[in-house]
């Protein structure tokens, strides 16, 4: 009875002293793990039972449960069905046994975590952690949680929806909750390989930009391209997938008279490349400066020698790009002084939006004797969107008022006109495009229907140098939760004389990658459209 009176007095004193939610309960008790409280309290031997919005509170931790039992001799707790907040994380737990939560679910913003066991220490100590973010699935053997960060041991993260063919492994990682940044000594796993990266970072809110550097493709001009393009060479501290240093080794035109070997190395906006065989040359660039030399150019418009300085300046919607260039080609040589600029602005009023985009380029040729070159144009777009209805009208065009052929192709901006009208209503769409009405006129009328279960259907009538009807279909993209899937997108064109084109894109999805094969055969092209077959292989992260 004396112990009961002492507990009631202590509870009253603490309820008056503390202003937190738990401190406002009628009955409270200070324990080593924080303030314990409830609207009702009973005592059974050495077990103190708090019921009616029972709670446990300390700095950085607040838990509620229907009832919390406190074993005074052991200083431990028993409870089920707990909810609350721990170090800024929303908490749901199946049970509280002793001084640890079990079956814990944590959430904070777009982050979700499951923790097998979370010990109520300072800081909180977790075991068996599974974390899901917009970019990664993460597991860790142990974790220490504070409001600002989590320290993870036995860390492994993967961007794959199923499996771990691509994985980031760290013995110990620091996770900054506010930014989603992960830091640590890392190794990148690809299938059964482990590639040491040293000190590295990742962002749990941003999918890594992992593209396959392997190239295997054939073109409609003949020949195969095989090799590595933009192969990453990681440096300490860089973010996974955002490596600045890249290496290129490509064999192009294999099996044709245009066989060549291209090698290159770049780091950010600095790099160099050279080519052996067909159209040999060497090229170097650093920020806005470019230098190039080719002893045997492939045509009269490709420079034998080129030096260029072209910085870019941006101010809100205005972009200016002055350039100073010296070049020698098979038909022209000399200095070019030019300025290219554009402006973009959108007026928005309710569902209506009007976008203006004027642009111009002026080139002068001091000491070379060529006439100035001017290209002016731009575009205007009017859009309306409300509910399932969307309408859009857009015009873009360009004129060359002084001369249609500048001495160098670098600044050449061909004349064109394009009008586009389109509308969508729910899954249905209809669009009309008119290109170059005063030249190689091309009309295209296209309708489409999109259904999440059936896929995307398109039917188009195209009239240019020939008339053709094009039919295309694309299967619905598989859900990321589906670990194995096939995807097809066939296309066919035909007219009164038979087939004009054939195409097929095939993808195989596994738990981590999409393997793609794209084949196209243009039998009859519009105007100067290249005819022939092309085949491309691709590999991308799901």
UniProtKB/TrEMBL annotation:
This is LPS-assembly protein LptD. It comes from Thermus tengchongensis. It comes from the Bacteria.
């Amino acid at each position: 009875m004396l112990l009961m009176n002492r507990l009631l007095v202590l509870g009253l004193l603490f309820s008056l002293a503390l202003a937190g939610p738990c401190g406002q309960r009628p009955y409270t008790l200070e324990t080593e793990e924080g303030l314990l409280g409830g609207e009702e309290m009973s005592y059974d031997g050495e077990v103190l039972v708090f019921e009616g919005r029972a709670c446990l509170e300390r700095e950085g931790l607040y838990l509620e449960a229907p009832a919390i039992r406190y074993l005074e001799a052991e200083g431990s707790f028993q409870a089920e069905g707990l909810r609350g907040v721990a170090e800024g994380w929303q908490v749901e737990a199946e049970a509280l046994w002793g001084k640890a939560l079990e079956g814990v679910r944590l959430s904070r913003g777009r982050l979700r975590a499951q923790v097998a066991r979370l010990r109520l220490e300072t800081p909180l100590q977790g075991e068996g952690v599974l974390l899901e973010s917009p970019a990664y699935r993460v597991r860790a053997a142990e974790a220490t949680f504070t409001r600002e960060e989590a320290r993870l041991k036995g860390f492994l993260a993967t961007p794959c929806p199923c499996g771990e063919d691509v994985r980031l492994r760290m013995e110990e990682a620091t996770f900054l909750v506010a930014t989603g940044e992960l830091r640590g000594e890392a190794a990148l796993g690809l299938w059964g390989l482990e590639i040491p990266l040293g000190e590295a970072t990742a962002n749990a809110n941003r999918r890594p930009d992992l593209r396959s550097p392997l190239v295997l493709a054939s073109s409609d001009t003949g020949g195969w391209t095989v090799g590595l393009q933009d192969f990453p060479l990681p440096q300490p501290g860089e973010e996974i997938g955002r490596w600045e240093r890249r290496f290129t080794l490509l064999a192009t035109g294999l099996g044709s008279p245009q066989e060549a070997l291209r090698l290159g190395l770049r780091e950010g906006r600095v790099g160099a490349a050279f080519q052996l065989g067909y159209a040999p040359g060497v090229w170097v660039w650093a920020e806005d400066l470019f230098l190039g030399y080719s002893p045997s150019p492939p045509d009269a418009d490709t420079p034998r020698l080129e030096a260029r300085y072209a910085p870019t300046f941006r101010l809100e919607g205005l972009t200016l790009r002055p350039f100073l260039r010296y070049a020698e080609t098979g038909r022209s040589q000399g200095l070019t002084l030019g300025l290219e600029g554009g402006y973009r602005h959108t007026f928005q009023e309710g569902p209506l939006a009007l976008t203006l985009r004027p642009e111009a380029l002026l080139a002068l040729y001091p000491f070379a004797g060529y006439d100035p070159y001017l290209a002016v144009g731009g575009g205007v777009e009017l859009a309306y969107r409300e509910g399932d209805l969307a309408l859009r009208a857009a015009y873009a065009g360009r004129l060359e008022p002084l001369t249609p052929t500048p001495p160098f192709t670098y600044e050449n901006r061909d004349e064109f006109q394009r009008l586009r009208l389109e509308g969508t209503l729910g899954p249905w769409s209809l669009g009309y495009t008119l290109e170059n009405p005063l030249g190689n006129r091309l009309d295209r009328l296209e309708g489409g229907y999109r259904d999440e279960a059936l896929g995307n259907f398109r039917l188009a009538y195209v009239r240019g140098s020939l008339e053709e009807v094009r039919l295309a279909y694309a299967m619905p993209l598989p859900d990321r939760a589906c670990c194995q899937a096939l995807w097809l997108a066939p296309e066919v064109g035909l007219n009164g004389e038979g087939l004009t084109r054939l195409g097929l894109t095939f993808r195989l999805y596994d738990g981590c990658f999409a393997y793609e094969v794209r084949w196209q055969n243009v039998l009859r092209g519009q105007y100067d459209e290249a005819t022939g077959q092309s085949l491309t292989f691709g590999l991308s992260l799901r």
